Every structure is written in structure tokens, then in C-alpha cells.
Amino acid sequence: MPVIENNTQARKRTISLSVCELVEYTMRSGDLSLVFFSTDRPIQGVFGHQTVQAMRPKEYRAEVPLRHVVETEEYRLTINGRIDGIYEYGDHAIIDEIKTTRKPLETVSEQDNSLHWGQAKCYAYLYALQNGLERIGVQLTYYQLEEEKTKEIRRTYSTSELAHFFRSLLSKYVSWAQTYMDWIEVRNRSTQNIQFPFEAYRPGQEQMVSEAASAIDERQKLLIQAPTGVGKTIAVIFSAVQAMGRGLESKFFYLTARTTGKIAAEYALDILRSRGARLKHVSLTAKEKICFNPDKTCDGDDCLYARGYYDRVNDALADAFRNDSFTRDTILGFAQKYRICPFEFSLEVSLWVDCIICDYNYVFDPRVFLRRFFSDGENGYVLLVDEAHNLVDRSREMYSATLNRRSFMELRKQLRPILPGLYRSMGKVGSWMMKAKKKIPENNDILAVDECPLDLCQLLRKFTSEAEQWLSKNEQASFRQEILDIYFDARRFLNTAERYDDNYATYYASNGRDISVRLFCLDPSEHLEGVLQRCSSAIFFSATLTPFDYFSELFGCSGSTRTLSVPSPFPRSNICVLIAGKISALYRYREFTKDEVAKMIGAMIGQKRGSYLIFFPSYEYMRIVHEIFQKRYARMKVIIQSPGMSETERDAFLAHFSGQTDGFLVGFVVMGGFFAESIDLVGERLTGAAVVGVGFPQISIERELIRAHFDKIDGSGYAFAYQVPGMIKVLQAAGRVIRSESDRGVVLLIDTRYSDSPYRQMLPKEWRPAFVANVERAATLLQEFWGRQGVLSRE
Q1: Nearest C-alpha neighbor of 557 from the set 593, 597, 528, 586
Q2: Which of 48, 216, 439, 441 has its CA at 20 to 30 Å from residue 326's CA atom?
Q3: 173 within 8 A of 19, measured Cβ to Cβ
Q4: Are 388 and 382 in contact, with CB atoms under 8 Å apart?
Q5: Using the 8-state DSSP alphabet, how is residue 366 labeled?
């Protein structure tokens, strides 16, 4: 996107953009057509360019940089570009613009692509102008990648013709650039001396603002741990907006994994706007959740909102730009008004706004990250990473890949008479996987190794090559989507294999007659570090971000990293934390202690009517205790989370926690899920929570591989694989209880391991937990806390 600066000496505003950006904005037209392109198209394009350039005669000069400045009274426009090649014959020249294609060359015509001609004509004009030529040749060279043949289409223009063409593009672009420059001035004026939007800071909030501002100023990373209620979101966004007012950044990204985080960020921006700040933001929504026609292909022949997209998108942008807040509903409204694709329109808007609110994957995931912002070198952007404790496991998944044999074989059956080449290549992949299946020990379903399956990768390259040849024709077929899905799975696997090093492991999992192969990322830090190096600063914040060393290492925060731990701003007398340290929640003891767990939960609830959440490490353990609890405490209303709840079912579950109950409401839920992190039950909506166990992830091949990996490095495997991830779940669950200054509540932790130092040290210092050896002691302490006699004295 263009770079706009204020030139204070000349009192002019400076715009820097490329020839490609100028042409694409001013000349785009026609349908949105997301046809298939090979994932290695950029590499093939470079190869094609180099091949053509190597065939040219001695009069040919390749990769010629070009720069042109246009001065007016109001602005200074700098246009940059690089010409693929120039034939220089002394008295005349020919500009050569090279394009690679998979189309048959006989289908390529002079009228094929106005953007290609537009780019070449701009280069021709600027070269002719700088070299005093009255006429100049323009040539488009199409290189067919499979056939390795070329087709050349040549025209000749007078410099005056090209001047008229170039100035018409500038006129169109400058009209929009003027709008954008005016906005930048408005934004900068409103944020240069921006004040915190509330009369006073909450305890710890001013320190957060100061640390975040320093991290941005000094281009550092910052990790903040602060409990809910401190005001983390407004603090970090305010700091980023301050930095924007000082000219330290052009854009910031607010990254969040959940809808609640997106809503909080939008609310914080609205507060700043209400205090005079002018800020534009867009909230990006996943394509499948915002598409008007999810059953249609993204093509003008099939979808109304793709048809003529580029004919209308500039008008839509100009109209929409009068808004500052581009929420999901705003994007949908303008997309409907102009009959354009809402997802593509949101990406277009993202180029011109000051803040982008989006999921982690738009920045960190190598498959879907926003290349328009993060594909080149350092960009000067600031990242604000909400609920950052989630990024560790999310990023492991981003940089891992899995293939299973069944999907290959089921698709292969359909292809035999139609695509024999694909049929054969998929058969070889399936045969290889069957041989790998036989290597898995008979008494086990899993085999883990520390080597990348290079032989499989070779077969997958053959398959993807065959698939690309067919997919690039963009022919419609009933199995096309299936081929696309498996093609992208295979490409992801190959791309992951290219990153494979000591931070990866491979494991084979047998499931009946099927087998899967997974390249598992044990440590994502190097990949995350690569992203962070392209940004000027990154601020990670969460209620659970300790130990700092653990997160700093896994986030890839190399060099100087700042940390800040903010204590709870709420009175310590508002929370009562009990540890039932005599009851073991270890798997091997659960059958013996399940009744004691149910009794202790009953003792907590029985001292005050209200609403309670009981957190368990697994659905199975929850089910066992739930059955006992229901029988013992039949007077209580008990609801239980079920696996795979829909959004409607989750909302119905939470609707019970209205704060209106005059009896006992008990919700049984699992740690680490929706009800442990994404809900705010303020005031009477939640009276207390019990956490059974220390939240350990279930023992699995992946957890054991993580453990072995970090044990080999420094002996920290147990902590990295189980202890820290488990306690994060515990603290997130317990954090549901106190959400505001007026909240009072109880937290009960049930497990012998809470008596051990490593676990106690991870508990918030302000908790000051009391250890209870039996239900009678728990009841007594809770009666003192609530200041009343227990209301449920017997089962």
C-alpha cells in the first residue's frame, strides 16, 4: 500500500507508491474470480522471468529500476517500479513486460488483460520521458510454464499518447489519495495529544499504559499479566493510539482468538472516539462466517457478489470511508448496498484503516496470513495480542500438518477413468502409507520418529504437480472441491516439511484400516520470532501469562523483552480461596476419592445460595462426579456441559446464570473450554467456582513428544508439556469469579498437588489460600467469609 508522509519543510504531503499499486487501483474492473493458482506460483514466476531474460539478445537489459517524481503545489508523488526488461537500440527502445501463465498460448489475446498493458504502458511512458524518446515500443511476453514457450504481443505508442494515459491514472488515484491524506491529517491531529479517556486510572492501569508506551517507543516486546477488571484492553489500545499520534506507527493489529475479545476491542475504540479521537478500524470475520452465498464459488459466473466486483469496489470504498468503525455489520451493509463480496471488501478496507481487529491466524499462520502486510521486510506495525496464553498451542497447530490415507483413497476411486495421472500418483501415496502402517508395533497404535518422511514428500510433489495441471484449467467437476482440499493438505504438508528441523517430530497413528502421518511442531518459537522481527513492537497480555520465561521463550521474544505483572485491583477480602489438599484428583485415585470430591463441592455451595461453576479436567471425570453429586444434592438445580455444544446451546447454558436464582444453581463444565475463558458473569451471576485437579492436558503422544523435547534441552519437559498448560487452565477457570470491584466470591481448589510448591507458586499472591482438611473446616471458613450460617447443613 502507498506510504504517506508529511514534508514539513516544503509544506507538502508526500505519497510513495509503486507502478503496480497505481495500475491496480485505477484500472481494476470486472469480476472477482478466485480461480486456482499454484501455491508455488511466485517461485515459478521468478523462474519464468529468468528463463525469458536469459534468452534475450545483448541489446536487452533486465530488471531495470525506475523512479519518477510528480510535484504539485499540494503534494509530492514518488512512483517506483522495476521494468522486467528493455530492448535498447540507440534511437528506439522496447519495454518488455513478462507474465507467466498456464493457459494455452493460443488463447492469450491482445485484449486479455488491461492491467498487464496498463503496467507496461506506465513503464514505457516513464522510460520515454527520462530518455527523451518521442515513440516507444511496448511488448507483453507470455511464458507458458508447462510448454516452456513464449508468445509476444507488441505495440508502439507515441510519448504523448502514453502521457495522456499516465496522467489519467494519476488523476483517478490522486483523487482517492487526497481523501486518504486528509484522513491521516485528521487522525494525527486528534491523537497527538490524546488523553486517557477516564478521569482516573484503575490500580495498575497507569503502569500498563507506561510500559506499553515504552515498549512501542523502544521497539521492544512486552508481556503483561493482569487480572480481569484492570482494563488491559483500553490500556494497550490507548498506548498504541498515542504512539500513532507521535508518528511511531502507521497501523496496529489487535489479535484475539474469541468474539468476546473482538467486542472488547471495538468497545475500547468507541470510548476513545467518544473522547475526540478519530480512528478507523476494521474487524475481520472469517470468510465462511460472512459470505452471502456460501454454496457458490467465488466467481462472477456463479456468485452475484463476485460479478462486477472490481467495477464497484472503488465506489464502495469511497462511500464507506466516511465511517470510522467497520464492524461485521458495517461491512455487510456496504457489501449488500454495492453487491460486492463482503470478505474481499473487508480486506480492501484493511489497507486504509488504522487498526485491524482479527484472529491470530491473519498474522501468524503461514497459510492465511495477510501477505499484503507481512510478506516483505520490517513493516513498522504494532501487534497487540489478547489472551496471549492461547497463542502457544494455536501456533503449534499452525506450523504442523497431517495427512490421512483414507481421504486419498476415497477420492482416488472417482478419478480412475477421468484423470489417470492423478489416480496413479494418489495410489503411490496410499501404498507408501500402508507400508508405514506395517511398521507400527502390533501392541501400539502410534509410532513416533524424529525424521521427516522424505520419500512420502517426493510422492506428494508428484501428486501436487498432477493436481495443479488439472486445477489450473479451472474446469468444473463434482470432485473438484475434494481435489482442492487434498491438494491444499498436501501442499501444507510439503511446506511444513521444508521447515522441519530439531523442533519437529513425526508420528504415525493407526486407526483401524486407516493411517495418518503428522509433522508436529514441538516448539513454534522460531516461526513466531520471524513474524515479530517484521513488526516494530509486540505486546502480549493475559490474566495468565506466568511464568514469564516460559511464554517469552515460546513466543520467540529474542533480545530485550519487558515484563509486567499487575496485582488484582480488588480488595483481598472480596475473595475466599480454599485448597482441599487432602483429596487427590490423580487419575489412579479418582475412583477412591470421587465421593470426597462431591462432598467438598457440596460444602462450598451449601454455605450460600447462588450460582456456581464446577470445573473438571475431562468430560469423563466430570460425568462420574456429576452422577454422585446429583444423587446427594437432589434439591439443587444442576446443569452439565456436553461435548461439541453449538453457539445456541452455549448461550442457553449461560442464560441460567442470570443472577435471579433464589436457590442453588450448579454448572458442571470442563477446563480449557468456552466456559472457562470466554464468559463474564458479573455480580450475583456467579457466586463461586470449584476447580477439580490441576488442569493437566491428557497424556497423549503430542504431550509426551513435547516433554521429551524440552527435557533434552534443559530438563523442563514436564513443566512445558503438562504443569504450566494445566495451571493456566486452572487460573483461567478461577478467574471467572471476581470480574468487578463489587464482586465477592469463593474459589475451591481440590487436589493434593496444590500443596506442592511448584503449583502454589503459580497462584496469585493476593489469594492467600486457606488449606482445609475436611468439609467441616471448609464450611466453617466459608460461613465466616459470608458472615452467615450455612443454608444447606445436610445432604
Answers
A1: 528
A2: 216
A3: no
A4: no
A5: T
Between CA 166 and CA 174, with CA 171 as vertex, the angle to 5 degrees is: 115
User: pLDDT tens-digit profile of 630-671?
Assistant: 999 998 999 999 999 998 999 999 999 987 777 899 999 999
Structural contact between residues 306 and 299, judged by C-beta atoms closer than 8 angstroms: yes
CA-based angle 73:76:81, to the nearest 5?
150
- For the beta carbon of residue 649, count every other beta carbon within 10 angstroms: 12
For residues 760 and 592, is the Cβ–Cβ distance under 8 A? Answer: no
C-alpha cell at 454: 522424505
Alpha helices in 441-520 (DSSP H): 454-471, 480-499
Give the orientation angle of helix 232-245 with respect to helix 205-217, to 10 degrees: 40
- Nearest 5°: the CA angle 126, 127, 129 is 65
Q: How far apart are CA 394 and CA 388, in angstroms?
A: 10
Q: Sign of dihedral through CA atoms 64, 62, 27, 311?
A: negative
Amino acid at 621: Y
SS3 state at 158: strand
Neighbours of 698 (CB within 10 A): 10
What is the distance between the alpha carbons of residues 254 and 248, in angstroms, rounded to a whole number? Answer: 17
The 10 Å Cβ neighbour count of residue 633 is: 20
Average pLDDT over residues 260-283: 95
Query: How far, in Å, CA of 118 to CA of 23, rounded?
Result: 6
Largest CA distance in the chain: 104
The amino acid sitting at 713 is: I
For 560-573, the pLDDT digits (tens) are 899 999 988 888 88
Q: Is 340 left (phi over 0), alpha (psi -120 to 50) or beta?
A: beta
| CA dihedral sign, ordered 79, 85, 90, 93 | negative
Written as one letter, the residue type at 721 is A
What integer pLDDT is reported at residue 105 of this predicted model?
Answer: 85
Q: Cβ(695)–Cβ(730) under 8 Å?
A: yes
Return the number of other C-beta atoms located less than 10 Å from residue 181's C-beta.
20
Structure-block grid coordinates of residue 164? 495522456
DSSP 283-305: E---HHHH-S-TTS-SSTTT-TT
Q: Residue 513 has which C-alpha cell? A: 484400516
Cβ(600)–Cβ(775) below 8 Å: yes
CB atoms within 10 A of CB 200: 8
d(CA 684, CA 663): 12
**Spatial distance between the Cα atoms of 27 and 713, rounded to a whole number of angstroms:** 55
**End-to-end Cα separation, the chain, in angstroms:** 68
pTM equals: 0.90
What burial class does residue 634 get, using C-beta atoms within 10 Å of its C-beta: 0-12 exposed, 13-18 middle, 19+ buried? exposed
